[in-house]
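Quick question: what would this complex look like in 3D?
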Amino acid sequence: MLRAFFLIKTQSLKAALQYPANFILDVIGVSLTGFAEVLVILLLTSAFQTIGGWDFWQVGFMAGLWRLSHSLHHALFLGIWEHHWLVRDGEYDTILVRPAHPIVQIMARGFPLEAIGELLPAVALFALTCGHVRVPWNLGTLLFLGLVVVSGAVIEGAVYLFFAAFDFWFPETGKLWIASAFLFPTARYPLHIYGRVFASLLTFVFPFAFMAYYPTYHFFHLASGDSPVFFPYLSPLVAAVTMLIALGTWSLGLRHYQSTGT
Amino acid sequence: MDAGLPAQLPARQPANSRRSFLAPVWAEARMQGYYCILQIRNDMLIQWLTALVEMLVARQLWIALYNGRLIYNGYTLDQTLTYVVLSMVIANQQKDDGVQYMHSMIRSGDILFAFIYPLHFTIGLIVSSLSSLVISLLTTAAPLLLMAVFVLKVPLPDSPLLWLMFIISFFLGYLILNWIDILAGLLGFWTTETSGLVAWKRIIVAILSGAYLPLWIFPPAIERLIAYLPFRGIQYVPLSILVGWIGPESYLRELVVQIGWVVVLALIAEVLYRLALRKVSIQGG
């Protein structure tokens, strides 16, 4: 199944590369937003020096880490954004009769173009900042980095999947935008600037803060402020739990799936 | 849920439908109609909710940036908060429908019909964008403004003159934005690949108009450069008038500059449009 999954992904990449000029333009188009955000962080920190006590390199490192996860999420879970169309148009019928698990089929749908577009600013930002923050780079840190990036991608995908599960009951569009409204604040700036209520929301309800903000404390060896000392290491656990909740909600919802009958 | 009936049926429902054998059909159609309205309302609610979150986030960010200070380089925290929150209230009006619409017409070839309309093509686009402005002001800007005032407690000026100037300047800014939109759309005649063009246009407008950040955040040299470009008239000028960064002595100058840009952009669009016409006739053979 895994083989088929990667086969589909590589095939869609090949299909996109059939029009190389268009492909490059589209990748640049997706990257632009990411690069614009780097510019925004740079402008803000050069005027005000720090954001919530963090300088450009620290904020940039966190934003780069977040964007690495976000890029991997795009590569794996972007198909979830089409979920409501699948329900609405009755295309779920075809998905349900195939042998592979429906979630795997939905995950295979996405187009790797956006992932590459997000990866460019992520790598640029990460490469730019990782030398300027005091992170002791060794095998342990690198492994932790990989674990955090994968966990972050799973957390983002799980939250979207949770919201997409409600398509079975209310198939109108736009639910995922609520989740993404809460996603982006965690992407750019340290969480503690948003105040206690919003920080709790982003920790316990939409656990996006585990994508980059909390793990960053481990990288910087900072005292973890208001949050418990074990929070930086929770990301994999949070990813597993949110994914389980999302899958549970999704399979509950699937029982309510009504075909369009066509 | 979906019986495949068009949702506009209830409007044409005959008076004696209750006795007709079609009654169940009408009932179903009416449900579909209600469902449609409900769905629109849900989409609206989601839009308002996400905008509220974004406004709250922007407010917290700037409070954190000011870091206890009440004033930075002469720009007070209250003014900046009003600026960033209101920039989100009016940013929702600034979709790039025009350029998307034109590009889809260019690709499908429907652009041909645009040339035989009695109304000049680009003027027609401006008129239709004005009508969509009215709708979006009512459905998004008004509720967002209420949220800004009552939930976020953003301080707003109460001088009628200030509001009048803001409205005039915002309207001119909207025209500038739409002419830029049309120019980007017209470039589609030459590039044919258009998704990249839309992305570039969106980012350039967002950064240089002051929609992302107030323009004084830029280093002075770049800020002076931006002053020579049309983009700042879209958001920075109207909002700066409202919060008081542009004083009464400069109102006239700023409005004249905005009007000037509307005229210049319209003229450039006209030239590009004529060139595009020639190009299309070549392709048509």
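Answer marked as accepted. The mean pLDDT of chain A is 87.
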